[in-house]
Protein 1
Amino acid sequence: MKKMIENVLPVAVENDFIVSDHGDVSAVYRAVYPEILSRSADEYEAMQAGRVRALRALPPGSIFLQQDLYRHRVVSRGEGDPGSFLAQARERFLAGRTYLRHACYVTVTQTAPGRTAATSRVSALITGNLVPRQVLRPSAVELFEATLGQFARLMAEADVTLERMREADILSTPARAGWLERYLLQLQAPGDILIKDLMLQPGVTV
């Protein structure tokens, strides 16, 4: 029997939002920052001030999470025009060298107002609603969506490009690991799938 990771974890994905069982709503972005050492000191100060303005635009109770991933990669041959003198010189100089490829993901979470942490004494199962009423109101989600649009515009003014990840990018398929699975299991590529079925008869196989 196959199980997708979203059926195992206490989260769901609706309308490109990740919704937890406590009512927290999260949006995920791919972030593209300017190349390092490509700006002057004054420009970096302006970019930092712009990012601060974008964070201040988020509503109270929001959580901003930035994940920077650096993966070792090797420069491969065959890129560019093989007959070009510059391409041949590049291959001789760079082919086989390692470098760090950077990927950045930003998650903005709106926590459920008035949520109490679940303990042995307090559980969400003894409340009147399993999901906070604020999350069930369409107006609350629409307001958070508008706030995210303003946040993305302010980040763009700070020279940071945000690309919203959709449901197809977040969730996994039988042949591809989605962003959620890669985030939790620290997978390097969508093709790296760790959650698989176990068969105990006639032997232990995956």
Protein 2
Amino acid sequence: MPKTTYVNVELKTNTGDITVNSDLSFNSAKANTDTGDISWKANVNESIEFGTDTGDIRVSDITAKSITASGDTGSMTIKNTNLSGKFKFDNDTGYIVVDNCQIGSIEGSTTTGGMSFKRTTLTGDLNAHCSTGDVKFISFDAANIDVGTSTGDITGSLKTGKIFTANTSTGKVSVPTSSGSGYAKLTYAPTKAFNFSTFASRFRQR
């Protein structure tokens, strides 16, 4: 395809990868594959929808309004991306990574697989939960945070203070003494005998 801006694009394969480079741009886009990876580097004015049965989804260095991603088996990575709206994900088995992004809000869930939010700021809320896996934060911030894991730990650092609450089925609850305009609600079950005072020292404001 020649270098230009296209109104809409819909890409689909049964077996094979989908790769869209940065020399293209679209008004809206959809990309789906049954077996294969999706690699996306093209700017989109409105929404992007991704879907895979077996394969990874990798998005980097783009601007768009929103991204919706669904997968059965495979990781999802959003890096160096600016979204004015929402990143929404639904993944059965695979890790979620959001790195160095500016996003309106994030909402999603995984069944088996952790989540990592690094060097990213949300103007709105984070609402993310996984059944099995850890949730990690590195220099992250959002207006409000609601995260949970049934089997796993939640650790990391935030850019600004939050009013913390934590719920667990195993162990004591001890969260950082902090203040702020937003809240951080944490629900999880540690993978081993775990004193939540240790968690409090690891989950800190930076």
Protein 3
Amino acid sequence: MQKKALIHIKNLSYSYGSIVLFRDISFDVFLGGLYLISGPSGVWKTTLLSLIGGINSPENGVIEYDSVLSPRERWFGYAFIDGPFFETISVRENIFLLENFSGVKIDREYYRELLKYFEIESLESAPLISLSAWQRERVNCIRAHIHKPKVIILDEPGSNLDNHLFEKILSFFEKNIQQNHTSYVIVSHDTRFTQMATKHIELIPQ
């Protein structure tokens, strides 16, 4: 029996005015896997990511979501480059905004585990404005995972991290895929993601 896709994408195209950004993108996202989107600068990879994540609506083509992904704020996690964050409030407050605004319950023990794993326990009370790029990225990554979503949308994960921390996020993703059947849809140029990708979608200039 064929598995049912969590997300079904068929003949997806998108334009900006008369300029075609990409066309005829088709693939399925199943439970537990890493779906990698790559390509040169200027092929609108992040735009495709936002469409798949349901943040924007497609102009042409189809994106269908399995009913198990409803409501979206419960079952999707997002981390786009550098936020968005609330700069003047703390790391903890930024992470817990999801709970405050959407009512999604956050497991406090899991929160502490993530702080420890991503090595930012000492920054919990620091305002976001005081953090470096590599610290902010780890906050962003925690925020995407904190409510244990089924699908996680990530834009250039690890791009600000040193090799030690990058290897930690790779291990974390692999464990999540294997043990929790999490599905990742990511944009990245890093070949280390290519090696673990369930499917690799390469965008080309139009």
